[in-house]
Write a structure and sequence with these properties.
single chain, Lipocalin, 3-stranded antiparallel beta sheet, elongated
Length: 310
């Protein structure tokens, strides 16, 4: 039992350790892979999920008119949406495999002028190993599950798309053009119908063909949940915190001084289960963010999912 609490403390320390209230700069693609509370352990599933996040950036632009400088505000709205097919498969009792196939829809609007880009994104493959799993044991009052694993994000998404004969910025592309390494850990403890779920993901981003490299980034969440049975339907409401942080991007080995940052969000979620089907929704509200160079505001985020378990 002592070891379990040590593991929990380490995960929470990784999640909130070194927290700085910074928001990412213009061209933010910091959003991490929020796994949320997954459908039932020890079952395969396939499904779809949709998530969207957006940012509002406010700056100024100065130009000369009649020999005099004129300054006006520039407001940019950026929205990143993903429709994703995903699934989990258990080849053995302790190993689970994940696959994520996203379709990306990006939009940037500046003072009424918009840029759109959409297409197949970068496919991710991951594998987790269960170090501890007492979730199905009747001999334990507290049910524990600890999984660790990793994987890779592959450069399957389109990269190098153009607008008005100019290559779009890296954050507007459907893919990153790089191979990225993913590490993650997931711990869940449950007492009767109440539980706590904590997860952590670290991404080592590789360098793309044009030598642009997104900064390393990590994200994590901790959520309190309650399992409620209502006839043939099971409901699982949850609430907690989500944190993400990204280091500055680099181009030709030169760091972008205004890139990177971090943000803390609150989580509100609801999952519903009926026979072999599961559906869920999550809403994230920003709590803390800051940027010294540009006024960048992360807006609320939403995620919806539906899956079939077998």
């Amino acid at each position: 039992m002592k070891n379990i609490f040590v593991v929990t403390a380490l995960l929470l320390g990784l999640l909130f350790g070194g927290f700085t209230t910074q928001a990412c700069d213009k061209g933010c693609t910091m959003g991490g892979n929020y796994m949320g509370i997954l459908p039932q352990f020890n079952k395969h599933f396939v499904g779809m999920r949709y998530n969207t996040r957006s940012y509002t950036l406010t700056g100024t632009h100065t130009h000369m008119m009649n020999g005099m400088p004129h300054t006006h505000s520039v407001i940019t709205e950026e929205q990143y949406s993903t429709m994703e097919a995903w699934g989990r498969f258990y080849p053995t009792r302790r190993i689970q495999l994940f696959a994520f196939v996203p379709y990306v829809m990006n939009r940037q609007t500046t003072n009424g002028s918009s840029i759109h880009q959409q297409g197949l994104g970068d496919i991710s493959l991951m594998a987790n190993y269960s170090l501890i799993n007492t979730g199905d044991s009747a001999g334990h009052t507290f049910k524990h599950t600890l999984q660790v694993g990793g994987g890779a994000k592959l450069p399957t998404g389109a990269y190098g798309a153009r607008h008005n004969d100019e290559v779009l910025p890296a954050h507007m592309q459907a893919g990153s053009g790089s191979v990225d390494v993913l590490l993650n850990a997931l711990y869940t403890v449950r007492y009767k119908q109440t539980g706590l779920s904590t997860d952590f993901t670290y991404r080592f981003n590789g360098e793309g063909k044009n030598r642009y490299q997104f900064g390393y980034r990590y994200s994590g969440s901790t959520n309190l949940f309650y399992w409620h049975k209502a006839g043939a339907i099971s409901l699982l409401p949850s609430a907690g915190l989500y944190y993400e942080k990204a280091k500055p991007d680099s181009y030709h080995d030169q760091h972008k001084m205004q890139g990177g940052g971090g943000a803390l969000f609150s989580n509100l979620g609801l999952n519903a289960y009926y026979r072999n089907f599961a559906a869920g929704a999550t809403w994230q509200l920003p709590l803390a963010q800051q940027n010294e160079q540009h006024i960048t505001s992360a807006n609320s985020r939403t995620q919806f999912s539906i899956s079939y378990m077998f």
